[in-house]
Amino acid sequence: MVRVKHFKTFLAFAALTLGLSFYSCSSDDDGPDDSTTNAPLVGKWEVSNQNAEYGSFEFTGDQKYIITQRTTIPTEGSRSVTRAGETYIIVIFGDYSTKSTEGNEYKLDLKEFGTIVISITESGATITVNGEMYDVSKAPEVAITDRTKLLCHTWNLDKAREYVPSDEEAPEYIFIGNGETITFTNNGTYVQYNANLTEEQKEYDGIPDYEYGTWKWIDSKTLEMSYNGYLSGHRVETRLARYTVTEFTNNKLTLECIVEFEPEEYDPEDEYTMWLSR
Question: How many distinct structural domains can be found in the chain?
Fold first, then answer.
């Protein structure tokens, strides 16, 4: 069973993991949006050269970017990392804005990353970073349904609850959100961002700044999430869980964990509930 200490980590990003951020695909009704102007670049662009420094560039309709960067030796303080064999994959996530547009060429300002240029053609595109040009192709999207459109936004974690009946001393733990968000995209990508972690939290609880993974619908009310978190010493923890979507409106989402395949100590009597909003 997941103990409270681990749950503080789990809820800070697993709860976020599931529903917080669900819009990387279409426009957000609650704020300014230039997804129509940027529609051609929205989506996940995969780098053709498998040995290139970058693996993919993803842009959402609500002005978020997700970049994966390959390295064999993560630098100290890498914000998030997953692993593929001996290669570590650093995830860079943030907000972007359009500096200029000329035809199908977009100059983008990526916060905390820099300026890039994406030129789109009928057969693909190129992305230029620091003078280096990468050939990219657009990845397929998941099936677009009304529920997927509603899900694909950036959500805020308001509150999460864990109830562990077997823990007689502290059976219930309530986590109050502190700037945590998650973004789910039309390409099945999810990124959870813990905005206000202290160094003490990172060291003691092992909570990463970012998490990176995938999501998919099992049925109309069940989400499956697979995600990785970077922990101390470059150790990567992988989790797989399913959640029932109970409340689901334009600005509210409630998720209840029904089964967690990883880690193995999960007890089906334990209860996880997350309340999200946007």
Answer: 2
Is 49 a domain residue? yes
- Give domain status of residue 111, yes or no: yes
Is-contact 256 246, C-beta < 8 A?
yes
pLDDT score of 82: 62
- Give the Å distances, CA to CA, from 162 to 3, 6, 13, 101: 9, 11, 13, 47
Measured distance CA(97)–CA(265) in Å, rounded: 43
Query: What domain range includes position 102?
Result: 39-138
Write the CB contacts of 124 (distance below 8 Å, at least 6 apart in sequence).
48, 135, 136, 137, 138
Does the pLDDT at position 262 exceed 50? yes
Q: Which of 138, 164, 199 represents a domain boundary (last residue)?
A: 138
CA distance 44 to 185: 9
Higher pLDDT, 212 or 221: 221
Burial 229-252 (b: 16+ CB within 10 A, else e): bbbeeeebbebebbbbbeebeeee
Element (H, E) at 6: helix 4-10
Tell me, yes or no, whether 225 and 130 share the same domain.
no
Q: Which pTM was predicted? A: 0.76
Rounded to a whole number, what is the distance in angstroms from the first to the last CA of the chain?
31
Q: How far apart are CA 217 and CA 223, in angstroms?
A: 5
